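fyi for ur records
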Amino acid sequence: MKEKMISVAGAGTVMKTVAKRRGLKFYLEIYRKILIQDLKSKMSYRADFIISNIGMIVSNLVGFVTFYILFQNFPSINGWTMYEMLFLYGFSLVALTPVQCFFDNNWNLRYAVKNGDFIKYCFRPINIFFYYISEVFDVKGLGQLTFGIGTLVYAWRHLAIPVTPVIIVQTVLFLFAASLFMIAIMNFAAATCFWIQNSGYIMVIMFRFKDFAKYPASIFNSVFRIVFTFVIPIAFIAYYPSLVVLRPSEIPLLSWLSPLIGLLFFYLSYRFWLLGARKYDGTGS
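which gave:
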C-alpha cells in the first residue's frame, strides 16, 4: 500500500511538472475536442436533450410565476418592485449557468473517489482539475441560460435601464464575477469527498443555497445577511453584482469588489480541490 501511494505521488509530481508547461492555447484546443465529442454523444439522444431543456425551462418558469403571483398582492417587498426582483432572478439564472454547464462533473467526484476510478486522472500530463471537470458538459444549462436571458431582458425593458456599451460591459463583467462564486462553492463542496465519506449531502445543501440568490440580501435579517455575504457568499451570485446595473446610485463597496473577491474565492476553491486530489491514494473510501 505504501509503495502504491509513493508511486501515485511520484507520478503526480511528474505529471504536475509537465502540466505546468502547457499553455492556454493547448487547453482551449483540448477542451474544444472534448466538448465536441461530449455534445455528439448527447445529441445522439435528441429526445433526452429536448426534454431536459424543456424541463429546465419549466422549472425556472415556476419561479417567474411565483414572483408574478406574489406581487399581485404586494406592490413591493422591502422597497423592491416586481421588475427589480425579476431582474435579480434573471441575473442569478445566467450567473448559475456556468456551474450548471461546465462544472457539473463535480457531482460525480465522490463516486469516482469512492470506487477508485479517480486514479486514472492522476496519470496524464495535463492539469488534473481541468481534465476531470472538462469531461462533462451539461446541456440542460442551455435551457436555463435561455430563460435567464429572457427574464433579464424582460425586466431590463420595464425598468428602463439604458442600453449603452458601458452598461453592457459592466453587466457581462459582473455576471462573470457572480458565476465564480457558485462555481467556487461547489468546488469546495465537491472536494470534501477526499476527506469525508458520503459527502453528497454537503453538495446538496450547498447547491440548495442557490435558491436564496434570487432574493435581495437586504430583505433578510442581519444574521442571514452576514452568513450570505461572508460565510456562504450567496449574495454575490446576484444581489451585489447586479446593483452596479440595477441601482447605480446606491452601489456598496462589496459590489465593486465582487470581481476581485470572486477570483480569489474561485482560486482558493481550486487550490482546495487540488489539495484533496494530491492526497488521493487510489484506494477508494
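The chain is about 70% helix and 0% strand. thats all i got for now
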